[in-house]
Amino acid sequence: MLQKAKTENPKTVITIRDVQKSFGDYDVLKGADLDLYEGENLVVLGRSGTGKSVLIKIISGLLTQDYGSVNVLGSEVATLSTKELTELRLRIGFSFQNSALYDSMTVRENLEFPLIRNKKNLGRREINNAVETVLDAVGLLQTINQMPSELSGGQRKRIGIARTLILQPEIMLYDEPTAGLDPITCIEINNLINEVQERFKTSSIIITHDLTCAKAVGNRIAMLLDGQFQRVGTFEEVFATDDDRVTPFYDYNFIQ
Amino acid sequence: MKFFREAVTPPYEGKEILRQCYQVGYKSLALISLTGFITGIVFTKQSRPSLAEFGATSWLPSLVGIAMLRTLAPLLTSLISAGKVGSSIGAELGSMKVTEQIDAMEVSATNPFSYLVVTRVLATSITIPILTFYTALVALLGGYLNVTMAESTSFSAFVQSFLESITFLDITASTVKAIVFGFTIGMVGCYQGYNSSKGTEGVGKAANSAVVVGMFLVFIEEVIATQITFLFRT
Questions:
Q1: Is A90 at the interface with chain B, CB within 8 A?
Q2: Are residues A77 and A187 in the same domain?
Q3: Taking the model in full, what pTM does it have?
């Protein structure tokens, strides 16, 4: 299926071509093709174990594909040297499913950590300002001196997003941002994803099972079926089908 | 090899190394003090009758000092550290691995190996030799306490007797041995934690393996080190 862009001549920031990845005998990705355009929110939908998280780990260089090409911001990820990959990672934000906050550090230290290591020219005052700005952006300035264990699931997700935003990435990768959260918090996270897109001008890939989230944040939806993106388009286009691999998603989320 | 390459490659994590040194020392200090002191007392008490048979109780300070410095202090310190510090490193890194904190470090353009592994291995390699000499000193105090219960000896005479019996080789061998033990404990703890998997079960296994493998390797190294030192001595 043809992929539709948000605007007439969009710039591609991520290009994925014929990506294949196996774990032992289990073929997860079987020739996945996808484009992420500048400034858009692209939602990746699919059943558990279909390789959605594997895909964004390949994009960020945490995993390497067995075959195919992943080009991020003009760089072929698999061929980059360690130094080049580090430089590329400064331009990509990764929000983990379980937030992955450093549990031995306070919220402030969590946010300072990537900044101190990657922006060595910044003074203490500038670091404090940056931390407070992103915490304010996610609405959690009051938690600055708390430990991750003292935060709720939704707060941890927000702090995780704030930690990625502090390096001002051009691309955001969200792994199941609303998993395990109550409906109200889900709405708050969806709003935050949209705010991040608008305020920080990021291009994002959002991995989710949650169709409410997909509808709320996605400019386009890409459905991963049998290791390939077989349906890509707007929400309405993707679900305008009687394909029994697709319809259960819609039925479960909106009819049940 | 990766460890040595990363250890000499900037950025250097001086502050984190100091924090880890404090952690390693602080975690083991109380137990090491108690164990060293009791070992000193017990060793002196057990040795006294044998030496008394030959009228050689004046050799007690030398005997305690040499035994502690050459073997018991490095071994005791390392075994306690393998239990306290090795397990802690294994569990901490294992937990960070399964909760994706190590991946999070990596994607935020920070080298997790340098920040987590190099700092901890350097900290154990620096701190365990210091703790070893501390253990020897505390054991000597325990020994002195036991000696003074049976006869009147001044502390300076006791220490003087000990100092006369030890050689430069004893001190060097103990230091090198303690550095190797420290390196082993740190490396095994980090390896087990960094490569753990299968969720919380993996964290438990990492902590357990860090202790078991760490202690086993320390014993093997002790045997090899004793053989090498013996060659130098003869």
A1: yes
A2: yes
A3: 0.83
